[in-house]
Specification:
The chain has 20 helices and 27 strands. It is of the alpha/beta class. It folds into three domains: 134 residues, no CATH class; 297 residues, P-loop containing nucleotide triphosphate hydrolases (Rossmann fold), CATH 3.40.50.300; 64 residues, no CATH class. The strands form five sheets. Strands 12, 13, 14, 15, 18, 19, 20, 21, 22, 23, 24, 25, 26 and 27 form a 14-stranded mixed beta sheet that branches. α10 packs across α13 and α15 packs across α17. The longest helix is centred in the C-terminal third of the chain and has 20 residues. It is elongated and about 95 Å long. The two termini are 64 Å apart. The N terminus is likely disordered.
Length: 694
Amino acid sequence: MRDTEKSYATPESASSGTVRQGNRAPSPTRGFLLAARKRWNMTDLGDFSDFAGDDPDDSSDADRDRPAADAAGNGRSERSEAAAGAETAAAASAAGGDGVETDSGERDDAGSTDMGGVTDEADDLQFDDYDANPVGDERGVGAIAVSQGLRVSEDPERTALRAFVTAGNRERVRLGKYLVVPYPDDELLFCRIVGLEYAQEFQADDATEIHARRAMRRPADEFEERDFKFMAELEPIAVLFSDRGDLKRRMVDRVPKPQATVGEATDATQIKTGLKIPEEGVFLGHLSVGGEKVRTAARPPTIDYRLNDDYTDGDPLVFRHTLVAGGTGSGKTHASKNILRQYLSAERSYEMDDGRQVQTAVVQFDPQDEYAQMHDDNPDMDDETARRYEREGVAHGGHDDTLALVPKMAGSSYPGANHRAEQLEFTIPFSMARDLPWLVAGSSLNDNQYPALTELLNRFFRNYGDSGTYKQFLQFLDDPALKEELHESGRVHEATFDAVKRRVRGVPSGVFDQDARPITELDHELVRPGGLTVVPTYHLSSSRAKELFVLAVSALLIDDKLSNDPSSDRIKETPVVLGMDEAHNFLTDADTVQARKVIQKFTEAAKQGRKERLGLFLITQDPQDIADPVFKQVNTKVVLNLGDEDAIKSVNIPPNLEDKVPYMEKGQMVVYSPDNSEPVELTGLSTCVTRHGD
């Protein structure tokens, strides 16, 4: 504040309605006191004819320090003298409480006194170090309060950071809103609102019959905000500072000054830096609070949220695995299509061990026949939406290189009528069971039966070679001489032999060795740099058949990715995103040998994925059913609406976001990616970037 003369009122001059000239207030605190004492005003006293106390200083700190700018409205002011207060109260009571005469003789029916130019002058009595608009375009909403302590601590439970919110700003303050508080040296405290509270302004008991009756008679729109303090509890997130022209963040290591102006964060760079959101990467959605997108003064005004997609700060997050969890109707398929489409962008590639830059291949298992639609443009996308996506760097439009790799099963046919993608049938050769014995375990096998199955398969393939079929294996098991030989040699007990035989016959018929190309010969079709391969299972006749096809293809990909001597160099040398919808059906933690084998394989894939350029993209409505060894390897969790309490607890997101999940609308999501950003709420794209739906 400049060292110029200011007008301020003394208690004596205020009571007479005059203002004297003088130097500016000698201190910020004195300035606020003088500004407050410029107001002299009484409002409707209703059922009361006098004040409860006579002490002229018996008013709250917030009342004394209330900015003088509010005096022109509906505010009350503290009394300079008890006697003057009593006289004015009596006068108001005698007048019926309908208004108060000002010193100029004019009546203010709103219960406020017109102080002429005093209010504007009082506004100039502010802190020297803090302006009303401290940071660019940020708007002040209040000031840091110390009435209940002011502390930042390494222990969040011991942090005490609260702000008083002025009456004119209270309607737009919401839980979760991001704020900034300036330090005197131009650093900023970036924080968010985690609690809101009304507190009494005056020392009066408003939980009484007389107060309740007055409130019931008063229209709702006559609620007097200034009768109460509105406090916001703040959670410090980071300190923002400039380093050679670049805005950076560090952990909160200092406390803001008392009465520092609190402003709404409206600068995109500050918000992204404060939340550690990368400027570039895979687009997921727009930052939001309570379902409303965060707006800034920039163009576009929204804050785009992106996943780290380069090697600057470690491996790209796609290879550290993603989980999309949401209930029926939450928009998880819509969101998943939007995300996967970004991975298929022509501009996106990843460096392999030999230095080559290679585009990602996406292999997506599709239980509802929805993902092959990504081949087609969205007919609901208008030109303006497309231009907006382009401005924000969001890949959109149908992906031409999309192939529906269709499992062929006897007695089932795939309609494929809801998309225009190319279709190619495949079958599972029984030879895959040599390395994956659990493929032919029709139902659960115990620890004794699984080794017996392995023994039988090894003996079978020694006799028949890789050309041996499932039908031949069943005939092989029908040989009574084989059963007797294995029993007498002590290799397989006859009861165990019979149990294995029953379970092998429980495999759905028509899965193995159909009239189509074996999946083992389709590695170049299955994995294509920049290509999307969809494996639909909607048409298959049983859940067991779906499980067999999904796990067989998954195992083929994982084995070649993790092997030092792969069968397919194409799979080994291409970055792969392995997407699995309804993942809870395939990766559940069950107490059977084959289930443990499957989980072990996917756990290895998850652990070695970042090195081998293999990313898991799991989609589910029952995240609590996914086996822990796999779940623990997931870095990025995208959580949409979930109604089940166990499901919400299982995703293990911060409590403040966990409470929002059951109330989120379609397309709203919480993203918890510790290696990418602070946990945040997002709103997804309302228009799918590819075709979606019927």
